[in-house]
Amino acid sequence: MPLGWYLAQGLYPLNPSDSDDEEGPCELPNGKLVCGPHGLVVCGKCCSDYSFMNEGLSSDIEDAEEDEDEDPMSVFHPILDTIPSQFGPETRRGTGKVIPTRFTPRTSSIMPTELFRGQPTYAKLSRYIHRDDPRSVLIFTDGACLNNGQPDPKAGWAFVHGPGLTGNPLVTSGRLESKGPFGDDGIQSSNRAELRAVIAALRFQYWPGEGFNTMTIATDSVYVVEGSTKWAKTWVKNEWKTSGSADVKNKDLWEMLLGEFEKWKEHGLSIRFWRIPRDWNKIADAAAKESAKGSMSTEWMDVSGVCV
Q: Which residues of the chain have pLDDT under 50?
């Protein structure tokens, strides 16, 4: 996709091949400059530093916000000083030293949007925020595969990261790539797409920068929930072999996901999983199925939201 397509949606590409200007700066919608290939203010790979050109932008944003009527539902503001200047699309293979927990609400019949109510945030966005904890956010994820297990399968992923301020949910989605994050060839399958959706959600944003210290991922995938909170730890101990001594499927995505758990713990964000009924995940499911119809990229591609 051309860079203009991403910026029109408040997004920017983070891979070198996804930028119109592979060597020069890229201007984000909030006016900040980053390197085109990697989306970083200070980039060691490009030997570039645009921080001096971004000085004063944060204060300009704050001044503009002060001129507007304060929204009583805006429960927190961005923690600008906590965003590492080098924070970017780091890719690591996890070791299993950080395993997320499983979230079980006190009332089994309560729906996610009842417990995590849609609220506007500091940047005219909206998030699903816990009604009793403004630092706890929820994201819906799902993956789908047309012709799953049959000839010519096509998989897609999606996550919903807010209800939207105009009634249209904030949805990010994409077609599952033919290669994984470490260059491994990957099949088109629903399980792989479900994993991809969670990875995309975790890598979409520097979530502590919005004031969050806990993220709950709501999904109807038993594979994702049980694998993340239980099976992965055993797989690592068994050197990525199942109890039947077979190779664990989708090992590259599982390693990537474990790496995300470790990275976020280092940045003060706890991850937990909530297994929900499929009927509660209709928006992410529909978006994943629609994305499965799109064109497939041969290379892994990160898409990130603009934080500040």
A: 1-23, 29, 38, 42-46, 50, 52-81, 307-308
**Bridge partner residues of 173 (DSSP):** 158
φ, ψ for residue 124 (rounded to 5)?
Answer: 55, 35
Number of structural domains the chain divides into: 2
**Tell me, what CATH number does 125's domain have?**
3.30.420.10
Alpha carbon distance 268, 49 (integer Å): 26
270 in a structural domain: yes
**In a domain? residue 79:** no
- End-to-end, the C-alpha distance of the chain in Å comes to 23
Length, in residues, of the chain:
308
User: What is the pLDDT, as a whole number, of residue 27?
Assistant: 58
How far apart, in whole angstroms, are the C-alpha atoms of residue 137 and residue 144? 24
Alpha helix segments (H runs only) across the chain: 3-8, 51-54, 57-66, 112-115, 190-203, 222-226, 232-237, 251-266, 282-291
- In this prediction the pTM is 0.75
Q: For strands 214-219 and 133-146, give the pairing.
A: parallel
With contact defined as beta carbons under 8 Å apart, do 21 and 2 qualify?
A: no
Asked if residue 107 and residue 42 are part of one domain, the reply reads no
Q: What is the pLDDT of residues 218-251, one digit of tens each?
A: 999 999 999 999 999 999 999 999 988 999 999 9
Residue 274 structural domain = 101-305
- As to burial, measured by CB atoms within 10 angstroms (0-12 exposed, 13-18 middle, 19+ buried), residue 142 is buried
Does 276 lie in the same domain as 152?
yes
Q: Quote the pLDDT of residue 39.
A: 54
Same domain for 31 and 142?
Answer: no
User: Has residue 87 been placed in a domain?
Assistant: no
pLDDT of residue 217: 98
- The token pair at 79 is 């923690």
The answer to the question of residue 86 being in a domain is: no
Considering the domain architecture, whether residues 154 and 301 belong to the same structural domain is answered as: yes
